[in-house]
C-alpha cells in the first residue's frame, strides 16, 4: 500500500489520478478508475450542455459508489461555453472534487469553496502553481513538457519541473506528463510529488471509450511518434504524429496563420478519430509516454500493477542500494 497526503485530502485509496481528457473522460472510464481506488475525472466540456453533464454524473454514480471528480477546463475565447452553468451543474450534482485547468480558477473558487468542493488545479509552470495555491486550491497537478495536450511554453520536463515546484508548493501535488508505470510513481514521489496523473496511459485501457485501433496505435508507437503543433502561435500542443499533424506543422512553420489550419485541427475531426478508429482523420492528443505502453489492460489491472510494483521497488531494489550501516547513522 502506498498512501500519501493526496489520498487523505481527496479521499481516495491510491495516489493515482486519471485527468480530464476531451472526448475520453466519460462515465465508463471514470467509474473504473474510482472502483480501482484512483481518482478519475469526467470531462465537463465533452458534454454538449450542462444538463448533459448532470446526466453523465448520474450515469457514473450508477457505476460506482466511490469518489470521482469533474474536469472543468477554462479557456478564454470569443464565444466561451457557459462555464458558470457547468460549474453549477457540478455543484448541484453533489460532486466534491473538481480539476480546473487552462486558466485561473479564481472566478469559480468562491462557489466551489462554499459548496465544500475540493479543487485540484492543473498547471504547467511553478509560477502558476504558486498563484493557484494562493487562491486557495486544495491541490496542484504540475504538468511537464512530456505531456499530451498543452504543455505550456516553458518546455520544462518533469525531472526539473516537479522538484522545482516542490520547493514552493506546500499543498498536495501530483505530477503529470510522462507517467505510465510503477517506476514513474516512485520517481514522482522521490522528486517531491504526492502522486501521479496519467492521461495517455489510461487511454490505452479496456474501459477507455475509444476505438481499439487508437489503443493499439499507442501500444505500437514510440516516444518519437508525437508532434508539437501551434508552436509559432504560442499555444503549443502535443499530439500523435500523423499526416494531419505533420501538415499543420509544415503550414505554420512556413508562415501560415491559424486560419490556414483551422479545418485540419477541428475538434470534431479529432473526436471522429476516437469513434471511428481512422487514425489519420484529424489530430488527437498523445504524450511521449506512449513509448512506455505495451499492453491494453483493464483499469483495475493497471492500477493494481502500478501500486504493487511501486511498493516492491521501494522495499526491495531501492532499499537494497542503501547499506545497512548507513541506516543506523
Task: Give an overview in words.
It is a single chain. The protein has 329 residues and is of the alpha/beta class. The chain has two domains: 5-210 and 295-325, Aldolase class I (TIM Barrel), CATH 3.20.20; 226-285, no CATH class. It has 15 helices and ten strands. It has helices at 5-10, 27-35, 50-63, 83-92, 109-114, 126-135, 158-166, 182-191, 200-203, 212-220, 243-253, 258-261, 267-276, 299-320, 324-327, and strands spanning 16-18, 39-43, 69-73, 97-101, 118-123, 139-143, 173-176, 196-198, 226-229, 237-240. The strands form two sheets. The protein has an eight-stranded parallel beta barrel with strand order 1-2-3-4-5-6-7-8, surrounded by five helices. Helix 4 (83-92) links the parallel strand 3 (69-73) and strand 4 (97-101). Helix 2 packs parallel to helix 3 (50-63), helix 3 (50-63) packs parallel to helix 4 and helix 8 crosses helix 14. The two termini are 27 Å apart.
Keywords:
eight-stranded parallel β-barrel, 42% helix, 15 helices, 329 residues, alpha/beta, globular, TIM Barrel
What's a quick, concise take on this entry?
This protein is 42% helix and 13% strand.
What oligomeric state best describes the polypeptide chains here?
single chain
Secondary-structure element order, as H and E?
HEHEHEHEHEHEHEHEHHEEHHHHH
Radius of gyration: 19 Å
Q: Quick one: how many beta strands?
A: 10
The largest sheet, given as strand count, sense and whether it forms a barrel, is:
8 strands, parallel, barrel
Return the CATH class of the largest domain: Alpha Beta
**Any idea what the CATH architecture of the largest domain is?**
Alpha-Beta Barrel
Instruction: Determine the N-to-C terminus distance.
Output: 27 Å
Class from secondary-structure proportions: alpha/beta
Strand order of the largest sheet: 1-2-3-4-5-6-7-8
Proportion of helical residues? 40-55%
Mean pLDDT: 96
How many structural domains can be distinguished in the coordinates? 2
Amino acid at each position: 500500500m502506498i498512501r500519501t497526503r493526496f489520498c487523505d485530502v481527496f479521499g481516495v485509496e491510491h495516489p493515482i489520478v486519471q485527468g480530464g481528457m476531451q472526448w475520453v473522460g466519460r462515465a465508463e472510464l471514470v467509474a473504473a478508475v474510482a472502483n480501482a481506488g484512483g481518482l478519475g475525472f469526467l470531462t465537463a466540456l465533452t458534454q454538449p450542455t450542462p444538463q448533459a453533464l448532470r446526466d453523465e454524473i448520474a450515469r457514473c454514480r450508477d457505476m460506482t459508489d466511490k469518489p470521482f471528480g469533474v474536469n472543468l477546463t477554462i479557456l478564454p475565447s470569443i464565444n466561451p461555453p457557459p462555464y458558470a452553468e457547468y460549474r453549477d451543474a457540478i455543484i448541484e450534482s453533489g460532486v466534491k472534487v473538481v480539476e480546473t485547468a487552462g486558466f485561473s480558477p479564481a472566478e469559480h473558487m468562491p462557489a466551489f469553496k462554499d459548496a465544500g468542493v475540493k479543487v485540484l488545479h492543473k498547471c504547467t509552470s511553478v509560477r502558476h502553481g504558486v498563484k493557484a495555491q494562493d487562491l486557495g486550491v486544495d491541490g496542484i497537478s504540475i504538468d511537464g513538457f512530456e505531456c499530451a495536450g498543452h504543455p505550456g511554453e516553458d518546455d520544462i520536463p518533469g525531472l526539473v519541473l516537479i522538484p522545482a515546484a516542490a520547493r514552493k508548493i506546500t499543498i498536495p501535488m501530483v505530477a503529470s506528463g510522462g507517467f505510465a508505470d510503477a517506476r514513474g510513481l516512485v520517481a514522482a514521489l522521490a522528486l517531491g510529488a504526492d502522486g501521479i496523473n496519467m492521461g495517455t496511459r489510461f487511454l490505452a485501457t479496456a474501459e477507455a471509450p475509444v476505438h481499439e485501433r487508437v489503443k493499439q496505435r499507442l501500444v505500437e508507437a514510440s516516444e518519437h511518434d508525437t508532434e508539437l503543433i501551434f508552436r509559432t502561435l504560442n499555444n503549443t500542443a502535443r499530439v500523435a504524429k500523423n499526416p494531419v499533424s505533420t501538415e499543420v506543422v509544415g503550414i505554420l512553420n512556413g508562415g501560415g496563420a491559424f486560419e490556414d489550419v483551422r479545418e485540419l485541427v477541428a475538434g470534431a475531426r479529432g473526436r471522429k478519430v476516437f469513434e471511428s478508429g481512422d487514425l489519420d482523420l484529424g489530430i488527437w492528443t498523445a504524450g511521449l509516454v506512449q513509448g512506455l505502453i505495451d499492453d491494453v489492460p483493464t483499469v483495475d489491472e493497471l492500477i493494481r500493477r502500478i501500486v504493487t510494483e511501486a511498493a516492491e521497488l521501494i522495499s526491495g531494489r531501492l532499499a537494497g542500494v542503501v547499506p545497512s550501516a548507513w541506516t543506523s547513522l
